[in-house]
Amino acid sequence: MKIRIGHTPDADDAFMFYGINQGRVNTSGLEISHELQPMQQLNRWSLEGTLEMTAFSFAAFAQSFRHYRPIQCGISLGHGTGPLVVARPETSEAEVKAGLLASPGDLTSAHWLTHLWSPGQQTRQVRFDQTLEAVLSGDTVAAVVIHEGQMSYREAGLKLVVDLGAWWHQETGLPIPLGVNGVRRDLSEAVQQQLAQALHDSIALALREVEPALDQALPLARGLDRDRCREFVLRYVNQSTLDPGPDGLRAVAEFYRRAHAAGLTPEPLQPDWVVPATS
């Protein structure tokens, strides 16, 4: 059976899929291929149920849940850190909130989080790897930064206005849910479980073999050296990625509750998780 897996061409996803890419987890009977696309593209595809298994943001899942069930592992949780709002050194937080902010996509969790932090914020959709340039060129007052830009914005001469993951933790006491993987609902229960277990085992292997897994991740680190790549990857791929635990599941519920209250989604979604057999 052919299974197309969608994930981003980023270091943390490459690390997460280490075991699957190495052929060292059970994918018996499945013909796996990988579709590497920016998260905003994966989010758009998820709305149509394009791929059999894919990463998407929790924001996108509010619209794609009719096609997918989320897997209760492989969840990107920010523990006191998350997407960053950055600006030029002379720009105040008040000026950011009153101005135009570059956003990595309206289907990203970072976009939702921005509007929870600053209701009514003016935003412009910019490809995630061009958000810093939007600020430097003067096109926008500030930017929401995700992925490796979180490690390099200072080198670009920008300052941190707010860490949205830290803000969320101060508000809720919980980690911030950012991304999740899902399997299409029209797959059999057995295949859904097999894919969930394969993802779990792939992450577990990467966490046991960090340095070899980093070898796979580093070419996608967009200029980060090995030490900073390791820091970035392990920030978002760790034991809570294997098992979000009660706090992680509460965080997802709270994210959807607040998004619904803010008018970002018409209903407070209650995910029906695919839980790996061993976790």
Word description of this protein:
Helices cover 43% and strands 19% of the residues. The protein is α/β, with parallel strands linked by helices. The chain has 2 domains: 2-77 and 176-261, D-Maltodextrin-Binding Protein, domain 2 (3-Layer(aba) Sandwich), CATH 3.40.190; 84-172, 3-Layer(aba) Sandwich (D-Maltodextrin-Binding Protein, domain 2), CATH 3.40.190.10. Strands 1, 2, 3, 4, 5 and 11 form a 6-stranded mixed sheet that branches. Helix 6 (109-117) links the parallel strand 7 and strand 8.
Keywords:
alpha/beta, 43% helix, five-stranded mixed sheet, D-Maltodextrin-Binding Protein, domain 2, 2 domains, six-stranded mixed sheet, 279 residues
Distance between the termini: 25 Å
Which radius of gyration do the C-alpha atoms yield?
Answer: 18 Å
What is the H/E order?
EHHEHEHEEEHEHEHEHEHEHHHHH
Number of DSSP strands? 11
> Considering the protein shown, what is the CATH homologous superfamily of the largest domain?
Periplasmic binding protein-like II
Largest sheet: 6 strands, mixed
Global shape: globular
Beta-strand fraction estimate: 15-25%
CATH topology (fold) name of the largest domain: D-Maltodextrin-Binding Protein, domain 2
CATH class descriptor of the largest domain = Alpha Beta
Category from helices, strands and their pairing: alpha/beta
What would you call the quaternary organization?
single chain
CATH architecture of the largest domain: 3-Layer(aba) Sandwich
Q: How much helix, percentage-wise, in residues? A: 40-55%
Number of domains: 2
Helices and strands in order, then pairings?
Layout: E1 2-7, H1 11-16, H2 18-21, E2 31-36, H3 39-48, E3 53-57, H4 58-64, E4 68-70, E5 76-78, E6 84-87, H5 93-98, E7 100-103, H6 109-117, E8 122-125, H7 131-136, E9 142-145, H8 149-152, E10 159-163, H9 164-172, E11 176-184, H10 189-208, H11 210-217, H12 226-236, H13 239-242, H14 245-261
Parallel strand pairs: 1-2, 1-3, 7-8, 7-9
Antiparallel strand pairs: 3-11, 4-11, 5-11, 6-9, 6-10
Helix pairs in contact: 3-4, 10-11
